[in-house]
């Protein structure tokens, strides 16, 4: 084997550069594979990332992170909700029948008075709990404060001051006061108090969780007011600006007690079952008249109002 290797190296030693230059090689000999590949240096169009993921399997990044020793923070699906007011009136006050009409010295008036004394025990416990969170609360001065809130809220309503109205009424009372007032003109005025307002009922319930307290105080207010509502054409729909009426109202004022930045706001009204019905709203409708020629006159006595044709409605 050593002899064969010596012969090979001896033959290579005798090969010169000139002999290799003059030698003829076949020209059709090519490399089996290309020595370089064309590389695209710039993308001519945008490929969405989702196109390349169609055939691939989606991997859970949380499983990968746990395998790598990364601790993921727990994600809560619940969003924090701030309930600034309650959903309704808890244990509403039941006004005695004939209030503001029956004399306190009569037999029925004495019965009403004794019934109020019996129901005042729960109110006293609620007032004591309200004073724990609101040190400035007093039944003597709160009735006048509630009347001022009532007047300012209605003044903001007739001027359509939404920011001021939101600060004076709760989120439950706001849609009840503004519903149906679009394209209408409201004229309201507080004339005078016939009787001094007073606190007649108080409750301090909790909602959602124990300790989430809401203070609800019912104030009786007997006053004289004027109200007139006009439609978008300026026609009177309800009430009168010149004729005042005696109004007996039971206002529910509420506050979120555990919130130190909350305030007392108008929450609703209590309408007793024996209250007289409200005045009907006068709705005006434009009736199309006949087409008259310039030399003709309209005769309202002999004109018959056309009736609309019957239409079948399908849901």
From TrEMBL:
<comment type="similarity">
    <text>Belongs to the mitochondrion-specific ribosomal protein mL45 family.</text>
</comment>
<dbReference type="GO" id="GO:1990904">
    <property type="term" value="C:ribonucleoprotein complex"/>
</dbReference>
<protein>
    <recommendedName>
        <fullName>Large ribosomal subunit protein mL45</fullName>
    </recommendedName>
</protein>
<comment type="function">
    <text>Component of the mitochondrial large ribosomal subunit (mt-LSU). Within the mitochondrial ribosomes, required to direct the nascent polypeptide toward the tunnel exit and position the exit at a distance from the membrane surface.</text>
</comment>
<dbReference type="InterPro" id="IPR032710">
    <property type="entry name" value="NTF2-like_dom_sf"/>
</dbReference>
<feature type="domain" description="Tim44-like">
    <location>
        <begin position="123"/>
        <end position="271"/>
    </location>
</feature>
<keyword id="KW-0809">Transit peptide</keyword>
<keyword id="KW-0689">Ribosomal protein</keyword>
<dbReference type="InterPro" id="IPR007379">
    <property type="entry name" value="Tim44-like_dom"/>
</dbReference>
<dbReference type="InterPro" id="IPR051975">
    <property type="entry name" value="mtLSU_mL45"/>
</dbReference>
<dbReference type="Pfam" id="PF04280">
    <property type="entry name" value="Tim44"/>
</dbReference>
<keyword id="KW-0687">Ribonucleoprotein</keyword>
<keyword id="KW-0496">Mitochondrion</keyword>
<dbReference type="GO" id="GO:0005739">
    <property type="term" value="C:mitochondrion"/>
</dbReference>
<dbReference type="GO" id="GO:0005840">
    <property type="term" value="C:ribosome"/>
</dbReference>
